[in-house]
Amino acid sequence: MLYYILVPLLAFVLTMMVAGNNLSAAVGTLIGSRILSRAGGALIGAAGFSIGLIVQGRSLHGTASSLLPDNNMIVSLALLVSLIIFIMATVLRVPLSLIMALVGSSIGLSLRYHFQISSSLVLLIIFTWVLAPFLSVAMAYIINRRFSRMKPKNVWNFALTLKIALIIISFLTAFTLGANTLGFIAEVGRIKGYEILLLVIAIFLGSFILSGGVVRRVGNDMYTMRYSNAFVSLLVSSALVEGATLFGIPLSNTQTLTSSVFGSGLSYRLKFLEARAFYITVGMWILSPVLGIILGFIA
Fold first, then answer.
1. Distance from CA of residue 113 to its chain's centroid?
2. Inter-residue contact 197 to 136 (CB < 8 Å)
3. Cys-Cys link to 104, which of 32, 74, 260, 293 (CB 3.0-4.6 A)?
4. Whether 251 contacts 128, CB under 8 Å
5. What is the model's pLDDT at position 277?
6. Reduced to 3 states, what is the DSSP secondary structure of residue 162?
7. Among 12-16, 26-30, 114-118, 149-153, which is the least confidently predicted range?
8. Which three-class secondary structure state does DSSP give residue 33?
9. How far apart are CA 243 and CA 238, in angstroms?
10. DSSP per residue over 168-208, as a string?
């Protein structure tokens, strides 16, 4: 009975923290450039997270079932370990990926309790995690180079079009995070039916209450971005995460966005690019699942 209550509670807290922490990745450019107010940006982000979770969250069902047995005690431990890792990362202000930590903790717990995991699925996830950053960098670099050659006849109309496009792509970025990361949390916790509404409440609470200190995020920290750079980075990130979701593969939104921002920066050689932040982030991508496996195994 205890674990039956604990699982949705942990999923609620994790969802709230992820929504608050990742809101800026989706709508930080909108708020930072004052295209929208913080409340308007939070509403766009929360709506995208929620709709993505409801519409496509079930896409991660097969992967969650293959990585973790349907046992409330083990599921609660996986969520708890991931929550502890996420809190540690937040306190230390390091860009540790929640979805990578959750996959890692699921694998560690399954190994501990002798649940047979599909090795081909694990290899596919690892391959995707390795390939996604390279694709993000390459795609963002190529698209930005093409953007830089464009000579709009009416600069003001072009800027207005980019602002509208940024609002749309920010929503889609939030949608893909809701479908993939939040969907994976829901599927690991076997959250379904009316319980999904609890996660939607958690999304809005996290977006409006916990996001105040993280509006300036990956883009502003690593690269002073133009509207076109921000649009391309979000476009590449959301496309790759959506593709992974369609195949039922958990993929970090932060991983693809950070890489696409780096690719955007590389396309403008005269601009300042803070590569150190990118290298630190790459290191944390490796640490996240490894730490999850270790803590999951000893939990």
1. 28
2. no
3. 293
4. yes
5. 66
6. helix
7. 149-153
8. coil
9. 8
10. HHHHHHHHHHIIIIIHHHHHHTT--TTHHHHHHHHHHHHHH
> How would residue 21 be classed by pLDDT, with cut points 50, 70 and 90?
confident
| Alpha-carbon separation of residue 11 from 75, 111, 202, 280, 283 (angstroms) | 10, 22, 9, 28, 26
Q: Quickly tell me which residue has 């979000």 as its tokens.
A: 234
Task: Name 194's Cβ contacts closer than 8 Å, sequence gap at least 6.
Answer: none
Name residues whose C-beta falls within 8 Å of residue 222's C-beta, 6 or more positions apart in sequence.
Answer: 258, 261, 262, 265, 273, 274, 277, 278
Amino acid identity for residue 122 in this structure: V
d(CA 206, CA 221): 22
**Distances from the Cα of 38 to the Cα of 153, 209, 247, angstroms:** 32, 11, 33
Alpha-carbon gap, residue 281 to 235, rounded angstroms: 20
The amino acid occupying position 194 is Y
**205 CB-side CA count, 13 A:** 12
pLDDT of residue 270: 46
What token pair was written down for 67? 């990585």
Handedness of CA 75, 242, 287, 91 (dihedral sign): negative
Take residue 84 and report the two structure tokens written for it: 């502890």
DSSP structure string for 236-266: HHHHHHHHHHHTT----HHHHHHHHHHHHHH
Non-local CB neighbours of 277 within 8 Å, separated by 6+ positions: 221, 222
Q: How far apart, in whole angstroms, are the C-alpha atoms of residue 273 and residue 218? A: 12
Q: What is the DSSP letter of 222?
A: H
pTM here is: 0.91
Measured CA to CA, the distance from residue 55 to residue 36 in angstroms comes to 25
Exposure of 66 in the CB half-sphere (CA atoms within 13 A): 17
259, 71 contact by CB (below 8 A): no
